[in-house]
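User: New here, please read:
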Amino acid sequence: MIGVGIIGFGLMGRTHAQAYAIDLRAQLRAIADLNPTRFQRKDVQGNIAGLGAGEIDPATVRLHDSVAALLDDPAVQAVSICTPTATHVDLTIAALRSGKHVMVEKPLGLSSAASRLAVDEASRHPGLVAMPAMCMRFWPGWSWLREIIREEPYGPVQAASFLRMGARPGWSSFYTDPAQSGGAMLDLHIHDADFVRSCFGNPRTVESRPGDEDPTGTDHVVTRYRFDAMPHVEITAEGGWRRDAEAPFVMRFHVRFEQAEAVFDLSQTPVLRLRRGGDDEPVELPPGDGYRYEVRAFLDAIEQGTPVPQVSMHDGAEAVRLIECERESIRTGRPVNFAPASR
């Protein structure tokens, strides 16, 4: 049994608690949060129905009001870091130095330079598993897409578009300050920027413009990714927060292959359909969400003593750097080169 601690028990902390509760190899042993009222709250809601519904049993879970106390807890072998972005790097380093396996929520840091500090620290602890929680790499339908892109059963990709939009999160004032959250580009759109890179590799250039919801691009961005291996393939991602506080959350992709089209829409049932040869057929997916499967991968890696194959700390830092390039493209009005960073 792997003893787990969660640092930060807002929406994402509760979501991680839900995911660990599903896996019998893990037991939630401790939670640390500077706000003790969060331990009892049940009204936390996110973009997707059902997230944040995890509850705790005070009889079996120790509640700490400091991170140091949790990291000193001998019953905890692995931690999830679910705190505001500015704290991710320092907490990751502290947890690794305390001998804990680490899963840290995205984004890894507010900047790629800060994120590299966590990457470098993880490299000094080869016996510990460290991974950024890039949940879309594990999301049913999205992990399917990545394999289809790589294996090409329907031929190569001809075009791909990704869309992620919703109301600005209202469950924390953290999201109203771009200096803390990085805005929708770093907090929301990074999901698709990272997923594009996981499917197609490092882009040669990114070309970004502000979306209609925010003329600065911070909270609404549209990006075109160009790749040397497929210079004529149109790959775009749009993401942001709408000004309408009641706007529904939208999570979609539309990928056209040589011989088929794949369409994912979270608002539809079934969520994923494959169109080919005049037929429109549902694609059967495993139950649950990406949080469940990223936790499964984390626990697998701890048990096997190997890195998580789907994502690395380097990937987490590169996702942040990709967003920085998109910001630079908006600032200059020009495409920006994305030269791969050394590991």
